[in-house]
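Hello Y.,

Per our agreement to keep a running log of every chain we model this quarter, I'm adding this entry. I've kept the format consistent with earlier entries: sequence first, then predicted structure.
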Amino acid sequence: MLPLIHPEPNNCQCRRLGRKTDLNTFKSLICLKRYPAWNWIVGAAVNIENIEVESQRELEKIVETLNKTLEEITIGMTGFAFIFDNAMRVLAMTDQSIASKFQICMNTDSRSLLLENLVTTAIKGRDSLSYRCDLFKTKR
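Predicted structure for the entry above:
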């Protein structure tokens, strides 16, 4: 019977394998863990491209569901609900016809992009923001 052993602490090594598609991108990743008491090296490899493709497919399904949900939300005559990511891309919005306008909307109070103001507000832990943006003065 083999003795119960643990890997050496902090000895997991991850390496990128395969050809570079650009200066910083590799297609595969392998992680290795050494077990010196058994003279073993255990490894696991993954094709990152497959993971990224599947993750993108799942994200698209989620965004589609969110868009369907948000389309049903009404906030007064001109209000709207939205979801955006850290890169300030609008993922879902009550009215998709104004999504592109929303991404370039300048907050005339702060003289910067409204989305930038929203990200800053969220990072600071606040839950509301006053703004002025001429693009949203008309009824939907």
